[in-house]
Every structure is written in structure tokens, then in C-alpha cells.
Amino acid sequence: MRAGGVRHARVARLYDRRDLRVEVAEIAAPGEGEVLLKMAAGGICGSDLHYYQDGGFGPVRVQEPIIPGHEASGHVAALGAGVSGLAIGELVAVNPSQPCGVCRFCREGLNIHCLDMQFMGSAMRRPHTQGMFRDWLVVPAVQCFAAGTLVAAGEAACAEPLAVCLHAAAQAGDLTGKQVLVTGAGPIGALVVAAARHAGAATIVVTDLADAALERAKAMGATQVVNIRDDPQGLAWYEVDKGQFDVVFECSAAEPALRGAIAAVRPRGLIVQVGVTGDITVPLSALVGKELRWIGSQRFDDEFASAVELIGERRIDVRPIISHAFPIEDAVMAFEQAGDRTAACKVQLTFMPIDG
Fold this sequence. Notes:
alpha/beta; Quinone Oxidoreductase, Chain A, domain 1; 2 domains; six-stranded parallel sheet; 11 helices; globular; seven-stranded mixed sheet; Rossmann fold
């Protein structure tokens, strides 16, 4: 509906643990350099789920009402002054990352570590940076990347998590012909599989505790899957002779998985830590004795554009990870479903604007 030319949108706003409300808010017209998007699809990320279930994760806490959502796509509805290169009706993926461009890390080309990063749907800063779970969104045009005409909106909305995984794969260097282990087959683990396969890995073994997750990992390119709950010794062969894997992508953030990774990676091998948790105990003697490299991987930078291109051309097909879709009015149901790992992988919200 419109009142006096004002556009309204439904938004999913989180007030506290499990207090997610669908409300109506006014949406401004796009200003110079901005576009107005009719939002189409938005994926629920692990951080969104932590906000909903626990009120945050680690030191990051929801301290004021926040609209979650940092992986989304929409159609261009209006262009602000000075915007070119985008067409009305075009499907775009939205990059949620907004580095300042002027701090010392941005000047060094390390935009990921921007000291004034604005990341949509994040409670890391205060005031919180509002996210994309809404019918309409005004956003700087530079954050919109055309997804082409081959893929659906839900696929385009997977560009952000795929960018995270492309960055993780880049941290590992050349994967051509390498033996790779991925621990944890949630959405990120599954997309890491796809990124490693795209990068030329010869063997990709995936571990998890849920068969449904492992089936999706196979669909994304895993050469072998192991249910560690059913087969605790499933990686035993890979631990012989000080380990067999060249690279491990640790996506579960579970201490037993990290210990298993350290046991199964070869001397001077690499562990890329993608999953995030609190403090854990690490077997430093094995880490030192095998001269392992253990590095972290956070978010992405230029990989977002690559992710949109790979999805848009279906060189990486993300459809196997999209397990559920709910309209925004059922946002609470969507978040509850996303918390059920026995059935859910990537749960998305869909949007039908209330005024056209």
C-alpha cells in the first residue's frame, strides 16, 4: 500500500531471543547512487540463527532491535540519480559488506579487516547494521551484482555464502590434484566442497553427524562422505603414516572435528578454519610435531563478484543446498526450521511486496 507516495515494506525484526516480529516500515526513495530493490529471496545464515536462538554468539550480542539477513537477492525497481549499469527488473545479488575505504587496512587492500566495516544484518557494531529480511530495500548500487537470467532468485541469494567459501579455498592456495577433507556439511561445508571441486581438488572427503547433510555434500561434489556418529573410525585410514590429507577445511567448529583434522592431515599440511565457536582445547603437540599450518578464514572481498558469476552461469550449482523456502509472514517458522539440522540446510525467506 501507499500513503501520500510513501512506500511500505514488511520487515522481519528481532527484538530478543526467539522474539522475531514481522512489522511494516516506511521505505524511502533511492537517493543518488542508490537503487530500490524488490527483494526476492534471503537465506538464513548461522549467525542469524544464533541471534534468534541465543541472542548472539561469543561477544557479539543483540542489544537493540535488528533486521537480520545478509545473503539476499532482489529485482531492481528504481534507480537513483547517477546510477548506470543496472536495468529495471534485473535480478541482482546484494553484497552486504561495506568497508569504509579509508582506514589503514582498507588502504592496504585488506578490506575484510576494515576498522569501520558496516556489514548488513550484523550486531557487531552499535547501532546495529540493519539487514535484508524485508520486502523492499534501498541500497548503494555498488553493492548490487547482476545475476543474469539463467538462475532463480534463491540461487542468486547464495552468492554471499559461496563467496565465504571461495575466500576459504583461496586461503589454501592451489588445490589442483590435492586430497581435501571438509569437516561439517552444513551450508558452508557443502559450498566449500563445491569451491574445492571448482578449484581442482582430486579427492574431497566430508564428515558430519547427519546423513541428510552428507547426501547434500555428495550432490555438491564430495568423493566420499563419512558419518562420524555411525562410524567413529571412518577416518582411521587417513591417519596412517602421520596423515594423508593435504588440506582440511574445518567448517564444524567442533573440537572433536578439529582434533580429527589434525590427526588426518599430513605433515606440513594446512588446516583452514572456517567454522567459528568459543574457546576450545587444541592438541598443540600434534600441531607442532607435524609442523602444521592452521589459519583462519573470514568473510570475503572480491570473491563476491566471482560467486555471482559462478552461480549465474551455473558453473557452481547451488540448488542442492536450498532445502526450504518460507514467505516472510512465516519468518518465525522459517527460523525454527533452520534450527533442525536433521532436515534443513539452507532455509530461505521469500518476499512478495505489499505495494507495487
